[in-house]
Design goal:
Mean pLDDT: 89
Distance between the termini: 32 Å
CATH topology: Rossmann fold
CATH superfamily: HUPs
Structural class: alpha/beta
Radius of gyration: 15 Å
Bound molecules: adenosine monophosphate
Number of strands: 5
Helix content: 25-40%
Strand content: 15-25%
Low-confidence stretches: none
Shape: globular
Oligomer: single chain
Strand order of the largest sheet: 3-2-1-4-5
Order of helices and strands: EHEHHEHEHE
Length: 146
């Protein structure tokens, strides 16, 4: 089996992200793999759909700007250049798989849980990424004590 060449690290920008990235970096370090970062913004319409007749575009722009700045800061602090960071909108697991395919990544790294999955054994996104993955997935254990 050959070493990993390209690793896609998915971060929700919570405080666990640094630890998840460090773990990915140590895997990459031993194989000289290329590291890519992805953060996915979930459109508010996914949560509220047509239920609330409201125009979310202003809030959505604000969320996008905030996420963009946070991702930029995170990438700068971890020496990831702009061609290796990706900010996309959609459902996290769908977009993570889509980018992994586009980049032809051979490993996806996620946290075992994050914002959504705190009460679950394995976060909902981590589960979604593992499910149906066409490549290896490393779920870095974060947060919980057991
Ligand atoms: P969660 O499903 O919120 O428990 O998150 C589990 C893990 O999935 C996180 O530690 C991240 O690695 C990844 N993840 C969750 N949400 C996102 C997101 N919006 N963008 C990128 N990765 C995410």
């Amino acid at each position: 089996m050959s070493d990993y060449q390209k690793i896609l690290v998915a971060i929700d920008l919570s405080e666990d992200s640094a630890m998840i990235f460090q773990r990915a970096r140590s895997v990459a370090g031993s194989t000289a793999a290329e590291l890519h970062l992805i953060h996915v913004i979930e459109p508010l319409s996914f949560a509220y759909g047509g239920d609330i007749p409201m125009d979310f575009s202003g809030i959505q722009d604000e969320i996008y700007q905030q996420a963009s700045q946070q991702l930029e800061r995170f990438a700068a602090a971890n020496s990831v250049d702009s061609t290796h960071r990706h900010l996309v909108m959609g459902r996290p697991e769908v977009e993570i798989h889509a980018l992994a395919t586009e980049l032809d990544a051979d490993l996806i790294v996620v946290g075992s849980h994050g914002r959504h999955g705190l009460a679950l054994l394995m976060g909902s996104t981590a589960n979604g990424v593992v499910h149906g993955a066409k490549r290896d997935v490393l779920a870095v254990r974060v947060g919980g004590k057991d």
